[in-house]
Amino acid sequence: MADGWLKPRLVATWADRWIVLQIGAAAGLAWFIAGAVLGQANAFFAPAAAVLVVSGSIGKQVRQTAELIVGVAVGLILADGLVRLIGRGPLQLALVVILAASLALVVSGGRMVLNQATTTAVLILALYPHAGGGIFWERWIDALIGAGVALVIRAVVEPRQPLRAVRRAADAVHDRLGEAFEGGTAAVRNADPAATLAAAERLHPAEAALKVLSEETTRAAHLVSIGLLHHRTRLTLARVDAAAPHLRRAIDNLHQALRHESAALGVPLAPGLLDAMAALDRASDDLLRDLVNPAGTWHGAQAARQAQAWAGRAERAAPPTATTAVAGHLHAAAGQLLLAGRHGPFAENAPTGPTAGCNDS
């Protein structure tokens, strides 16, 4: 039981090691600059502000990160000013937190600023024993140091190849889909119901691999959200994230097509079904290869359109049997691949509507 819980958590922690490194590096560097370089006796707020900004900005864009810093400033200004006037204590703490929350909402209206302002106010009142003696300029310097260090760390401390894990995950989806297409095409051609059903079941690992791809995409996007050198990487990750739901629906439609086909192999095969499957195989292969390429342009759009055209012919040629349902699911799968290609640089090769490319050619 313990091993079953601990191993996934250790794997997830190792996958997030760069985020952990960013937090630790920001705290240590902020402490060093404030304490060792500037000689401040109590440099607590520099690493505290650095940790607040780094941890709070994971997955956030530059504007949201700026809101974090505004929240820290709001809490610091208000707490420093009011503690001078009303002193420290439980009632004073409650009042300062209420005022900090109210001011944060007035300034931005965002929950992020609210959280940071109230947290900072609590830190000032609860952890500075001499805060009632006046407004200490050291804390302002600490805040600047911590926020500045956090921004630098978030911008530059990143893996050299943030897409490596995403590409591995995409390769796994590619391999699982390739196995299912290969087995399904052979089984349908040989009119083997058991093998066709087995090919459908092979798509479950593809769905699991696609889930891993989505997780790795999210993790990488969190890491490079404000990285200076990774603008194109962010665009690529956004493209993968937008395409994943369509890929999931395409896999589900292919799964349904193979299951229906396993029950319809006693009926003469509708013309175009095997051609549609072959075109889908090419389209998904190209999509998964080009999806994680920052300069990629999807070359599989034409294959997806061909798959729709072949499936449409099969729908019209087949009698109203299970074979018609097979063609319908293949047609839908091709449409989902076309939709997956409508994001980022792929858009120039994508149709203007979800049913484009369905006509005979």
UniProtKB/TrEMBL annotation:
Cited InterPro entries: Memb_transporter_dom
Protein name per UniProt: Uncharacterized membrane protein YgaE (UPF0421/DUF939 family)
Lineage: Bacteria, Bacillati, Actinomycetota, Actinomycetes, Micromonosporales
Domain Integral membrane bound transporter: 29-153
Cited Pfam families: FUSC_2
Main location group: membrane
Its membrane topology: Multi-pass membrane protein
Annotated compartments: Membrane
Transmembrane among keywords: yes
GO-annotated cellular components: membrane
Keyword Transmembrane helix: yes
Keywords of the record: Membrane, Transmembrane, Transmembrane helix
Coiled-coil region list: none
Superkingdom, taxonomy of origin: Bacteria
Residue stretches spanning the membrane: 18-37, 68-86, 93-114, 134-157
